[in-house]
C-alpha cells in the first residue's frame, strides 16, 4: 500500500485529525497540511505548515492518490479559505495523473442556507466546484465527491455546544437527537475516497436529520 498517499488539509484538529488517523489505520501514507502544527506522531505521517488560501505556501508533494479538502473556517475569510483554498489545493495536488479520489468537505448549510452568509456561500461553492472537478479528474479514472456534515462535535462548534439553552434548542430540532463525532465523519470520508469506485460528482448529507427542519441556532 506504499503507493497510496492521502493528503488531508486542515489535519491538525477535528475532522481532519480524525481522518488522518483513519487513513493511517488503514495502511495509507498520510500528508497533513495545516496552518497549525500537529500532535500526530505516527509512522507514515508527514506534516506540513501551509495556508490553503495562499497558494504560494503550498509545498510540493508528489504522488497524491487521495486529496481530502477539509480545511475550513467560520467567520474568518470563509470564502478565501473554504472555497478558494479548496480550489488552490485541488489545482496543486488533485489535477494529476496519480489522483484516484478527491473528497471535499462542504456543509449541511450549503443545502439549507441556514447559517452565516459567507460561510454558507463558501460551502455552496464547494458543492458546485465538486461537480466541476469530477469532470476534470474523470480522465484519470478518478472520482470527486463532497460530504456535507451537519453538527459535528468539534472545537469549532464550542459556542453552541457549551451553551445549554442553544444546545437544547438544537437537539429539539434534530430528529436523531445527537451530533456526529469527527471519527464518524472520517469513516465516511475514507469510504468515499478509498472504497467507492463509481460514485462521482455527488454530495452526501450527514446531519442526523438536522436540515429537515431548516432552522439555524447560534
CATH topology: Rossmann fold
Report how far apart the termini are.
43 Å
Total strand count, please?
7
| Tally of DSSP helical segments | 7
CATH architecture classification: 3-Layer(aba) Sandwich
Order of helices and strands: EHEEEHEHHEHHHE
Sheet of most strands: 7 strands, parallel
Oligomer: single chain
Mean pLDDT level = 94
CATH superfamily: NAD(P)-binding Rossmann-like Domain
The low-confidence parts are none
Describe this structure in words.
With 218 residues, the protein is of the alpha/beta class. The chain has one domain: 3-Layer(aba) Sandwich (Rossmann fold), CATH 3.40.50. Helix content is 38%, strand content 17%. It is built from 7 helices and 7 strands, in the order βαβββαβααβαααβ. It has helices spanning 14-25, 78-94, 109-112, 117-137, 158-161, 164-173, 182-195, and strands at residues 5-9, 29-34, 45-49, 66-69, 101-105, 143-149, 203-206. Strands 3-2-1-4-5-6-7 form a 7-stranded parallel beta sheet, with helices on both faces. α2 (78-94) links the parallel β4 (66-69) and β5. It is globular and about 50 Å long. The model has no long low-confidence stretch (mean pLDDT 94).
Which key phrases capture this entry?
218 residues, alpha/beta, Rossmann fold, seven-stranded parallel beta sheet, 7 helices, globular
Write a compact overview of the structure shown:
This protein is of the alpha/beta class and 218 residues long. The protein has a single domain, classed as 3-Layer(aba) Sandwich (Rossmann fold), CATH 3.40.50.720. It has a 7-stranded parallel sheet with strand order 3-2-1-4-5-6-7, with helices on both faces.
Amino acid at each position: 500500500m506504499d503507493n497510496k498517499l492521502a493528503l488531508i488539509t486542515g489535519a491538525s484538529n477535528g475532522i481532519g485529525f480524525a481522518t488522518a488517523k483513519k487513513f493511517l489505520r488503514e495502511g495509507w501514507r498520510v500528508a497533513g497540511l495545516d496552518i497549525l502544527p500537529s500532535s500526530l506522531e505516527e509512522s507514515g505521517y508527514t506534516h506540513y505548515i501551509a495556508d490553503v488560501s495562499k497558494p504560494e505556501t503550498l509545498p510540493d508533494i508528489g504522488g497524491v492518490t487521495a486529496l481530502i479538502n477539509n480545511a475550513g473556517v467560520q467567520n474568518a475569510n470563509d470564502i478565501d479559505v473554504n472555497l478558494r483554498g479548496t480550489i488552490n489545493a485541488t489545482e496543486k495536488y488533485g489535477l494529476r495523473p496519480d489522483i484516484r479520489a478527491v473528497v471535499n468537505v462542504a456543509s449541511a448549510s450549503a443545502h439549507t442556507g441556514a447559517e452565516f452568509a459567507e460561510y454558507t456561500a463558501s460551502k455552496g461553492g464547494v458543492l458546485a466546484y465538486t461537480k466541476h472537478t469530477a469532470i476534470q479528474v474523470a480522465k484519470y479514472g478518478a472520482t470527486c465527491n463532497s460530504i456535507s456534515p451537519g453538527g459535528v462535535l468539534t472545537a469549532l462548534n464550542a459556542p453552541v455546544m457549551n451553551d445549554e439553552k442553544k444546545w437544547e434548542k438544537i437537539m429539539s430540532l434534530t430528529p436523531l437527537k445527537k451530533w456526529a463525532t469527527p471519527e464518524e465523519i472520517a469513516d465516511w470520508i475514507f469510504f468515499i475516497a478509498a472504497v467507492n469506485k463509481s460514485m462521482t460528482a455527488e454530495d452526501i448529507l450527514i446531519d442526523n436529520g438536522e436540515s429537515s427542519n431548516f432552522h439555524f441556532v447560534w
